[in-house]
Write a structure and sequence with these properties.
By secondary structure, the protein is of the alpha/beta class. Helices cover 31% and strands 18% of the residues. Helix 4 packs parallel to helix 6. Bound molecules: zinc ion (2 copies).
């Protein structure tokens, strides 16, 4: 079975929603080394596209996120055997409205594009009605636009509707396997990976958690469509970085191999009793 050695989605204190002062790059790298990781991807929230005025949430989260991260990293001794990747979690407000330009994206090691932060009211496009059918259709439209934007290395927490989780299972039931395979095929054709996300795991802060069958179906259909995957805890605290280990559940359940990972990601095959 594959043992994960990367986490491509970690937030630092630079993200506005990260309330833990302990979430410094230095502490993150130390925690990552303790977890046996060989590669860590910093992915703070960002809206850096100067052509579109962002939601107030992004007012202080422009390109300075990247320059400040680089300054922080310059100040510390990087651990040996741990590759640091500088990326971001860029926002998508709607088809054609992205929080990062192509030039900016090309200057980073990776870009996670979020196509479903539907809680950013009045900014990220929401479904026209709060119904499972409308949500399912909207998730697909946002997914396919983000996948073909030419900006994303991977899509963050794909097909997971933040702000609409109470409708999640019902919305997914309105979508056929073929519809999903077709949408995931767009990502595969553009060489855009899908993230296997810490958000797919149960979370005690949620009023109600969704069934594991939902992400299992998403990932298995994406595999069938030819998608490659990245793994990301989406940690906003040092404790939540442990989630990368829990994500190995999906590797076992879906028999994922190294060939299913986006090229360049750290992972090894571990044989039992060796
Ligand atoms: Zn996100
Ligand atoms: Zn995130």
């Amino acid at each position: 079975m594959i043992k994960l050695e990367h986490d491509l989605h970690v937030h630092t204190f630079l993200s506005e929603c990260c309330t833990s002062p302990d979430q410094t790059p230095e502490n993150i790298l130390q925690t990552a080394a303790g977890l046996g990781l060989k590669q860590i991807g910093f992915a703070d929230h960002i809206w850096a596209n100067p052509a579109i005025e962002p939601h107030p949430f992004y007012r202080k989260q422009g390109w300075s996120q990247i320059t400040r991260l680089r300054e922080e990293l310059d100040r510390i001794d990087l651990p040996e055997n741990l590759q640091v990747l500088i990326g971001c979690e860029a926002e998508m407000a709607g088809p054609g409205r992205y929080g990062i330009t192509r030039e900016q994206a090309e200057s980073l090691d990776f870009v996670l594009l979020s196509t479903n932060h539907f809680y950013l009211e009045g900014f990220v496009e929401e479904p026209p009605h709060r119904t499972p059918e409308a949500l399912g259709e909207h998730m697909l439209a946002m997914f396919t636009a983000g996948a073909s934007s030419g900006l994303a290395t991977a899509l963050a927490h794909p097909m997971l509707p933040h702000g609409y989780l109470e409708l999640y299972e019902a919305a997914m039931e309105t979508l056929s396997d073929q519809q999903l395979v077709d949408a995931f095929g767009v990502a595969a054709a553009h060489g855009v990976a899908l993230e296997i996300s810490g958000n797919y795991l149960p979370d005690r802060r949620r009023a109600r958690n969704f069934d594991f069958a939902v992400p299992l179906r998403i990932i298995s259909l994406a595999k069938r469509a030819g998608c490659r995957f990245t793994f990301g805890s989406d940690a906003h605290t040092l404790e939540a970085m442990q989630r990368i280990k829990s994500l190995e559940f999906f590797i076992a359940a879906l028999e994922l191999t190294l060939a299913d990972l986006m090229p360049g990601l750290a992972a090894v095959i571990e044989y039992p009793n060796s």
